[in-house]
């Protein structure tokens, strides 16, 4: 017989086959603790914490190292921007049309230029989204 009464965990079935409710919950909790100990998410932080950046290829890595140094700051926003812009050959070739490294601002008008492909537009939008939480609109002065 299975009883789905409201217990400390709403989805815990309580089995009545010669065991009390307390024994069943205790066994369930022990099983849950074993599952947590075997979790890869917890095992990933066991002792050593390392960050490894995976690059698409050597050209991508070289671009990232070169242009990250040109940024005003080396924070996570600039790292994400430079990483994304280095993914596509068109964005690498026109990086100065996409972002002003001297002043530190994005150039959304690049999305309407003739060199853009569907792939490069997606990369630029992704980079802008990670850098400044979206693609900025055009500024009319």
Short characterization:
It contains seven helices and four strands. It has 141 residues and is mainly alpha-helical.
In words, what does this structure look like?
With 141 residues, this protein is mostly helical. Helices cover 48% and strands 6% of the residues. The protein has 7 helices and 4 strands, in the order ββααααααββα. It has helices spanning 21-37, 40-43, 58-70, 76-85, 89-93, 95-98, 118-132, and strands at 2-3, 14-15, 99-100, 105-106. A two-stranded antiparallel sheet has the order 1-2. A two-stranded antiparallel sheet has the order 3-4. Strand 3 (99-100) and strand 4 (105-106) form a beta hairpin. Helix 3 (58-70) crosses helix 4 and helix 4 (76-85) packs antiparallel against helix 7. The longest helix is centred in the N-terminal third of the chain and has 17 residues, at 21-37. The N and C termini lie far apart (74 Å). Mean pLDDT is 78; it is low at 1-10.
Beta-strand share of residues: 5-15%
So what's the overall shape? elongated
Helix content: 40-55%
Unreliable residue stretches: 1-10
pLDDT averaged residue by residue: 78
Oligomer: single chain
For the sheet with most strands, the description reads: 2 strands, antiparallel
Given the helix and strand composition, which structural class is it?
Answer: mainly alpha
Order of helices and strands: EEHHHHHHEEH
| Ends distance | 74 Å
Q: How many β strands by DSSP?
A: 4
Q: How do the strands of the widest beta sheet line up side by side? A: 1-2
Number of helices: 7
């Amino acid at each position: 017989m299975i009883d789905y009464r409201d217990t400390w965990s709403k989805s815990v079935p309580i089995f009545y086959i010669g065991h009390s409710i307390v024994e069943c919950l205790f066994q369930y909790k022990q099983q849950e603790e074993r599952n947590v100990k075997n979790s890869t998410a917890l095992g990933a932080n066991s002792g050593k914490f390392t960050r490894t950046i995976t690059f698409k290829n050597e050209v991508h890595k070289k671009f990232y190292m070169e242009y990250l140094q040109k940024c005003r700051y080396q924070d996570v926003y600039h790292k994400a921007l430079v990483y994304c812009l280095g993914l596509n050959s068109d964005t690498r070739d026109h990086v100065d049309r996409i972002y002003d490294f001297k002043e530190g601002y994005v150039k959304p008008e690049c999305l309407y230029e003739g060199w853009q492909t569907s792939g490069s537009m997606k990369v630029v939008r992704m980079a802008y989204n990670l850098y400044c939480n979206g693609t900025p609109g055009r500024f009319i002065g």
